[in-house]
Amino acid sequence: MTQSERLDVRQVLVRLPLFRELSAEQIEQIAAATREKRAAKGEMLFQKGDKPRGFYVIVFGQIKLAFPSSQGNEKVVEIIGPKQSFGEAVMFMDRPYPVFAETLSDTLLFFIAENALLDLIQRDSSFARRMLAGLSLRLHSLLQDVESYSLRSSTQRVIGFLLQQCDEAGDGEITFALPTSKQVIASRLNLTPETLSRILHDLTEAKLIAMKGRKITVHELRRLREFDL
User: Fold this and answer.
1) CATH 2.60.120.10 spans which residues of the chain?
2) Of the CATH numbers 3.40.190.10, 1.10.10.10, 3.50.50.60, 3.30.565.10, which one belongs to the domain with range 154-227?
């Protein structure tokens, strides 16, 4: 790995909530133990029951974490995109993966070996505290997700997902493409595909959005936000 490539690794790692509290020296040590992995769409990174040897950071692309079922169905737990990490909590617990990980698009990842992190933890207590702070941020996000599923209606969940795709903070019109298939999105939102399609149709009838294939146009972000209240 060249010096310029190490610089790229550092720039990705330092933006992760998990590593946000780490020093420049600690980031450098992790970057030195990081290797690149390219995966084509539809590739399995690990199966449920596999033993973790480290964890992953997405540079670009998209990963689906899901539970398999004996009926051939699946429950999508999370859809993970650029600058996000996954697999770290299971790695620290020293338990098999409870889900499988599959790429939803061509993806570039960084794999961070378990032994590099454990070595830093043993040598530097401040590193362990900062890692715990990062993991706590991730846990807080997951708890918010569970709360959303428990307390929000199906329509509110869909609107919340659409609003997440809108980076702009203004109130005007915005067009974007759904990040993955409607079937995967429905599973992620704990909905059936039929329910998701019905809600999108209702939002279209209400003139809040327009749809063309996977492209969605939100006419007025303010109206969509207000509808979510």
Assistant:
1) 3-150
2) 1.10.10.10
Q: What is d(CA 55, CA 164) in angstroms, rounded to the nearest whole number?
A: 25
Tell me, what amino acid is at 141? S
Do 112 and 57 touch, CB atoms closer than 8 A? Answer: yes
Q: Please write the tens of the pLDDT for every residue from 15-31.
A: 877 777 778 888 888 88
Is 40 within 8 Å of 85 (Cβ atoms)?
A: no
Nearest CA among 141, 70, 139, 61 for reference residue 101: 61
- The helix or strand, by DSSP H or E, that contains position 55, with its residue range, turns out to be strand 54-60
Residues forming CATH 1.10.10.10 domain(s) in the chain:
154-227
Per residue in 156-205, pLDDT (tens digit) is 889 988 888 886 556 678 888 888 889 899 988 888 899 999 999 999 99
- Write down the CATH number for the domain with range 3-150: 2.60.120.10
Q: Which amino acid is at 17?
A: P
Task: Please give the Cα distance from 124 to 22 (Å, whole number).
Answer: 11
Closest CA to 57 of 11, 121, 122: 11
Say how many residues make up the chain.
229
Helix, strand, coil shares of the chain as percentages rounded to 5? 45, 25, 30
